[in-house]
Amino acid sequence: MHQLTVIGLGAGDFEQLQMGVYRKLQQAKKIYVRTMDHPVLHELVAEGIQLESFDNIYEKHDDFRPVYEEIVATLLDYVEQEDIMYAVPGHPLVAELTIQLLIEAEKEGKVNLKIEGGQSFLDPIFGALRIDPIDGFQLVDGTTFSAHEVNMHHHLLIAQVYDTFSASEVKLTLMEKYREDYPVTIVTAAGSVGEKLRTVPLYELDRAAEIDNLTTVYVPPVANRDEALREWSTFREIISTLRGPNGCPWDQKQTHESLKRYILEEVHEFLQTIDEQDDEHMIEELGDVLLQVFLHAQIGEDEGFFNLEDILEAVSAKMIRRHPHVFGDITVENVEEVNANWEKIKNEEQAIDDTTKPLLNGEYRAASSLQTSYNYQRRAAKVGFDWPTTDGVWGKFVEEWQEFRVEVTNGTNETRLDEFGDVLFTLVNIARVYKISAEDAMLHANRKFARRFAYVEEQVMAGNKDFKAYTFEELDAFWNEAKNQEGE
C-alpha cells in the first residue's frame, strides 16, 4: 500500500514556516493542497515546487462537508497509484476535517497515513490576544457550532469564519447568549507580519473588512455574573449561594417536604399561562418551575444524597432507553405503537412481580389527591378491574351520590366525609373513562370561578361597595352577566 503523508503549513507566512517542514516540501515531487489560499504556498510556487489544489471542489458544493468528503475520496484514489503528500493550513490535527476523515479511512484499512508537523493557529492566537488558555477555552467551528455549546465563562475561539456570510451566521448564533454590543475581537493572520486585531461590538462582526480565510473570532469570558444570566452554571451558582452560609435564611431552611406545595403551585400557574397563550408570562412561570427543580437538586447535594448531574443522567438515560425508535433500531408506525413501546419498556424497568409487589405501589401522589385517584383506577383497570361498559361507571356514580344524600340527612360528619369521598372517586373514574384530566378540569373550574367572581366584585365596588348591601339574587345576576360576556 502506498503512503499518504500529511504535512501542516503552519499558521503564518513563509518566514514562520518550520525548517523541517520546508525541507520536506522541497523534497516532494508533487504536493496536493486543500486550498491555495495560504501565504506559504505562493513562495513555494515561486521556488518551482509543483502544487495541485482542490479549490475547484469548493465551487461544486454549498456545504463544507461534501467538499471535504470529495477531497478525501480523490486523495484515496491518487494514493492507490503512488505515494503522495497532502498539505493543509496550520497543524493537520487542529480544525482540519479532511484529516479526520482520512484517519477514519486509515482505521478501515483504506490508507497508510503519516501525519507530520506544522504549527497550529492556536499558539499565535494566544500570543496575539495575550491570553492564557489554562483559564479554560473553547475552539469551535463557525459553520456548525451551536449557542448551547458555548460556555460564557471561557475564552471562545471561533474558526472557519472566512467571509461576511459566515460572520453573519456566527453573530446571530452568539446573540442567542451574549448582548448585542458585547466586545469581540477579529484576529487575522495571527503570528505573521500581516497580523491584525480589531475589537468591535458583536452586532458589527459581519461588517468588518478584515474577514478572510485567515480570520479567527475571539469572544472573551464574561466579566461578571450579570452578563452570564443565560448560562446554566450561573443559575446553579445563584441557588447554591442562596442556600449557602451567607445566603437567604428562607432558602437555607427549606426541605423537600416544605417545598412540596410550592412546586404544585408553580406548575398550576404555568398551566394557566398555556390556557392564556401568554408567551411572556410563560417564560416567567417556567422559570419558577425551574427554580423549584434547582432548589430540590441543591438540597439533595447539600444533604449528600444526589445532585443535578444525577438528575440529568437519570432522565437522559430514560429518554434514550424509552425511545428506541429514535435512538435505536426499533421501527414504529404511529403514536399508538410509541405508547405501547413506552409502557412495555417502563414495565420491564420496574420489573413488577405480581406476587410480591402491590399493584398500586408508586402510584400515590402527595401533592394531588385527584391524580392519586386517577393513578389507582388506571392501574386497576389495566389488570381488568374495570366496568365493561360506561353504563357501569355511571351507575356507580348514581349509587354513591344517593348514599351521600342519605348521609347528609341522617349521618355524621365522619360518614358524610366517607360518602362524599366515594362520590369524588367515581367522578375521577368518569373523567378517566372519557380521557379527561380531573386535575386540569378542577384547575379550569377554579380559574373560571375566580374570573367570574372578579366581575361580581367589580360590580359591587362600582355600586354600593359592600356585598352586604346586595341580595343573593342581585349578586347572582352579576354572575350571569359574567357568563353571558363569556358566551356561555
TrEMBL record:
As recorded in UniProt, its EC number(s) are: 3.6.1.9
Q: What Pfam families would the database entry show?
A: MazG, TP_methylase
Keyword tags:
Hydrolase
Give the source's domain of life in one word.
Answer: Bacteria
MF terms in GO = nucleoside triphosphate diphosphatase activity
State the InterPro entries in the record: 4pyrrol_Mease, 4pyrrol_Methylase_sf, 4pyrrole_Mease_sub1, MazG-like_dom, NTP-PPase_MazG-like_C, NTP-PPase_MazG-like_N, NTP_PyrPHydrolase_MazG, Tetrapyrrole_Mease/MazG_pred
Q: Where is each NTP pyrophosphohydrolase MazG-like domain found?
A: 254-327, 398-452
Gene3D superfamilies in the record, alphabetically? Cobalt-precorrin-4 Transmethylase, Domain 1, MazG-like
Protein's recorded name? Nucleoside triphosphate pyrophosphohydrolase
What is the species listed in this Swiss-Prot or TrEMBL entry? Viridibacillus soli
